[in-house]
Amino acid sequence: MFGRHYQRRMATKLTGFEPAGLHSMKHLEEKACAKSHPTVESLKRALIKAWDEIKVETLSKIVDDFPNRLKACIEADGGHFE
User: Fold this and answer.
1) What is the CB-side half-sphere exposure of residue 80 using CA atoms within 13 A?
2) Residue 23 needs a FRET pair 20 to 30 A away by CA distance; which of 12, 76, 81, 82 works?
3) Residue 81 included in any domain
4) Could you give the C-alpha distances from 23 to 5, 26, 30, 39, 43, in angstroms and in order?
5) Over its length of 82 residues, how does the chain's per-residue pLDDT go in tens digits?
6) Dihedral, CA atoms, 40, 55, 65, 18, nearest 10 degrees?
7) What's a Gene Ontology MF term here (predicted)?
8) How many structural domains comprise the chain?
C-alpha cells in the first residue's frame, strides 16, 4: 500500500518515539545481535528470546503513551518533539 520512500520518510519522522519505543528496539538489538548468527533461524530465536525478556510494564507504557506521542508528532508536522 505504501511505497518504500513513504515508509522511510515516516520512519524518519517517528524518531520522536525514542523515549519508550526505541528503548525496546535497542534492547532487542543489544541482546539478539550481541553475536553473529549463522542462520536466519538463529537470529529469529535470539530476537524472540530478547522480546520475551522485555517486561510487560514496559510494553504497556509504550502502548499507553502512543496517542500522546502521535499527537505531538502531528503537531510538530513530523519534526522533532519531546
Assistant:
1) 0
2) 76
3) no
4) 25, 5, 10, 26, 19
5) 444 444 444 544 554 444 556 667 788 888 888 888 999 999 999 999 998 998 899 888 888 888 988 898 889 888 777 7
6) -50
7) nucleic acid binding
8) 1
Q: Which residues of 22-31 are buried (b: 16+ CB within 10 A; e: fewer)?
A: eebeeebeee
Stated pTM of the model: 0.54
| Spatial separation of the C-alpha atoms in residues 21 and 77, rounded to whole Å | 19
Residue range of the domain that includes 24: 4-75
Kindly state whether residue 82 falls inside one of the protein's structural domains. Answer: no
Joined grid coordinates for residue 61: 507504557
Query: Does 36 reside within a domain?
Result: yes
The set of cell numbers assigned to 31 is 541482546
Residue 70 inside a domain? The answer is yes
- Whether 17 contacts 68, CB under 8 Å: no
The single-letter code of the amino acid at 23 is H
